[in-house]
Amino acid sequence: MNFPASPAEVDLAVVGGGLVGASLALALAPLGLRVALIEAVLPGSGEQQPSFDERTTALANGTVRVFEALQVWSRMEREAAPIRRIHVSEQGRFGSARIDAAEQGLASLGYVVPNRVIGAALWEGLSRTPAVHVIAPAMVVAAELQHDARVLQIDSGGRMMALRARLVVAADGAGSLLREQAGVGVQRVEYQQTAIIATVTTQRFHDHVAYERFTPDGPIAVLPLQDGRCGIVWARKPTEAARLLELLDDEFLAGFQAAFGLRLGRFLRVGQRRGYELTLSRAASHVAERLCVVGNAAQGLHPIAGQGFNLGLRDAVSLAEVLADGIAAGATDVGDPKLLDAYARWRAEDQHRIVAFTDGLVRLFATPLGAVRGLRSAALLAFDAFPPAKSALARLSVGAAGRIPRLARGVPLVRDAR
Question: Could you tell me the residue ranges of all domains in the chain?
């Protein structure tokens, strides 16, 4: 897409083509809008898009329905491992809890998919979508607010161009330049933990069980993968994580075995290990004048319950729904403050609920006091014996709590959408 000296114009510009930004661009395609997607890394160029690395993501069932509606799930499904059960335990304590998909009347509680597979499917979908104009590789270096638009200054391989958008969506990650330039503050809480991410081979088949195990040194998640291996997330203090990342494979596996236990037998092999600092971040608002914030630019969560991407995707499809409803009601300006306010109110409620849930888990299981630890064990046992509580948590785990976007229910945004 080449621009003349004066700014080109679109209705909406999505800045950031990661998993959330690319999903939003696809969701907007049926609305008849002029949409531009600006991404720093062109997929297939040999460079690594940060969202499409070797990590895996747990997808809620609502997220899967979104991908089905966007016609990209079939490309992911081949490498998606269903989660049939979730097992929650605490190291050194007697309490544990289990959630079974079959008991909840579900085929699965979600799926685990490699990020690179999700990213490839989304960009393949974009390649078939003429309604979205992709500008890549390119970076937004500045944004200027005008009375009825934002003008983006874009660097595309050293060539500067300008783009005028009635609405700009910041999907450019936790360090969002657009959010910062719009004056939207962000609250950050450092968890003083580093997540060690790796893939392991186990002696026993995972049987499609996802494990969440709390230890005095930090939580552990073990997720089933389609090829029989497991993805692990091991949160430790930064200094200890740095030491673990430097160990030989056998030494690392021995330490992980001691923390996790023998539910999967022996851990036999471990792939490349990476460390990621864990921070809770929340934007002060999901909107500014002619700007919406989605995904990691809006919030970053602890991975303890696998809610981060699912929440960010709901940002995207909620915004698409608000715009679709506005257009159906006769709105001609996608940057109308009334539309942005409707989006902000919807997202604030969902964000508050999920942040309270995940942050509360981190803090509850980080408390070392003996009395609290005993109460945690008793609570896990009580939870395991109380079906209504299991059903409530199962609804949350599959993205079926609160107001659910239409796409997450498998309902098209517009009636004639295919």
Answer: 8-80+113-188+281-370+402-409
Helices (H) and strands (E) in the chain, counts: 11, 20
Beta-strand ranges (E) seen in 208-264 are 209-215, 218-224, 230-236
What confidence score (pLDDT) does residue 88 get? 87
Phi, psi for residue 396 in degrees, rounded to 5: -65, -40
Tokens 């081979």, residue located: 201
Question: What confidence tens digit (pLDDT) does each residue in 129-183 have?
Answer: 999 999 999 999 999 999 899 999 999 888 999 999 999 999 999 999 999 999 9
For residue 137, say if its preceding peptide bond is cis, omega within 30 degrees of 0.
yes
CA 105, CA 98: separation in Å to the nearest integer?
A: 15
- Report how far apart, in Å, the C-alpha atoms of 243 and of each of 235, 247, 275 are: 13, 7, 11
**Predicted pLDDT of residue 251:** 98
Dmax (CA) for the chain in angstroms is: 69
Q: By C-alpha distance, which of 180, 166, 176 is closest to 139?
A: 176
Tell me which residues of the chain have a pLDDT lower than 50.
Answer: 1-5, 369-376, 378-383, 385-386, 389, 417-418
Q: Which amino acid is located at 398 in the chain?
A: V
Q: Output the pLDDT for position 374.
A: 47
Q: How far apart are CA 51 and CA 41, in angstroms?
A: 11
Tell me if the domain spanning 8-80+113-188+281-370+402-409 has CATH number 3.50.50.60. Answer: yes
Q: How far apart are CA 301 and CA 203, in angstroms?
A: 31
- pLDDT given at position 179: 97
Contact 63, 315 (CB under 8 A): no
Q: Which residues pair with 112 in a beta bridge?
A: 58, 81
How many residues are there in the chain?
418
Strand, coil or helix: 156: strand
